[in-house]
Amino acid sequence: MNSPRRLLLLAFFLTAPALAQQPTRPPITGVAFARFYTTDPAAAEKFYGNTLGFERKESDGMWFYPVNHSQWVEIIARTPPPDPNTRLAAVAFTTSNAEQLKRYLESKNVRPEQPLKHGQFAVRDPEGNLVIFVQSGFDKTVANAAPSPVAPSHRIIHVGFMVTDEAKENAFWRDILGFRPYWRGGPNPTATNWVSQQVPDGTDWLEYMLNNGPNPTLQHAGVMDHFSLGVVSMPDTIATLAKNHCEGPDCTKSQLGKDGKLQLNLYDPDHTRVEFMEFTPQQDPCCSPFTAKHPAPTDPNQ
To answer: Closest by alpha carbon to 228, among 137, 300, 294?
Structure first.
């Protein structure tokens, strides 16, 4: 008859190979890009290329605008949006090992929507948003692009999109991917409309945009589905936008957000919001304290 010790040893040797084969999550270090549709390519080029000051590149019919060596904005200019009231196509994050991350997600029953190719693969989050993971440094066109001398910002600090069920999304973004709470709040301190969580291994963040109703308009969706460019000084940003011939009252309309950070919002021709935001708050935030480090002009994790 086997002794308890021998039974324990036998159980260990039977389970050890299975444990050893479980893939671990590699670092996810920041936002890679946000992808949007446009219905007015000429106006989109004027906005992203002239007003924002980014130089357009093209690949496989896609326009992309490098923000720095590891971040960019993608514009789908030749295909109409599948939803007339939505322009966001995808958000993307940088990882140190795309193949390992794919295996890790598969071990959590998250299957690829798009296979690993050219250093990228895609999945769907619980609410159907397309999420792309990009291996760091793989896109050589972006990696080798010279920083634009006329752009008001050279850093994407967060992306945001509409969310219906916070708990369902948290099961993916926090429980599986390891995103961490950063700040939460809203126009009314008694209700939460915005929930921010940082990437596991950096300071960029994803923002859930809650309480949008059953049928948001294109204008509403454009406000919610957005990306944010970090800046050191809002007055300097406004001055640079003026040099880039930014048109309209929004070009000088800065405001203090509920998170205590100075902000300025511009909108592309399809109503997609581009939020300029100072890296650090000027006062204590409403609603909840910050629970993690703020981003900086140059993120060593990118």
So the answer is: 294
Residue 266 sits at φ, ψ, to 5 deg, of -115, 160
Q: Which residue has 């300071």 as its token pair?
A: 203
The answer to whether 295 touches 301, Cβ cutoff 8 Å, is no
Tell me how far apart the alpha carbons of residues 82 and 87 are, in angstroms, rounded to a whole number. 9
* pTM (2 d.p.): 0.91
CB-hemisphere CA count at 13 Å for 166? 15
The encoded tokens of residue 27 equal 């670092």
CATH of the structural domain 28-278, one choice from 3.10.180.10, 3.30.2290.10, 1.10.10.10, 3.60.160.10: 3.10.180.10
Element spanning 160, H or E: strand 156-162
pLDDT (tens digit, 0 to 9) for every residue of the chain, 302 residues total?
455 555 555 555 555 554 557 899 999 999 999 999 999 999 999 999 999 999 999 987 889 999 999 999 999 999 999 999 999 999 999 999 999 999 999 999 999 999 999 999 999 999 999 999 999 988 877 888 888 999 999 999 999 999 999 999 999 999 999 999 999 999 988 899 999 999 999 999 999 999 999 999 999 999 999 999 999 999 999 999 999 999 999 999 999 999 999 999 999 999 999 999 999 999 999 999 999 999 999 865 55
Residues forming a β-bridge with 268? none
The domain limits of the chain are 28-278
- Taking the C-alpha atoms of residue 47 and residue 53, their distance in angstroms, rounded to an integer, is 8
Using DSSP's 3-state secondary structure scheme, residue 96 falls into coil
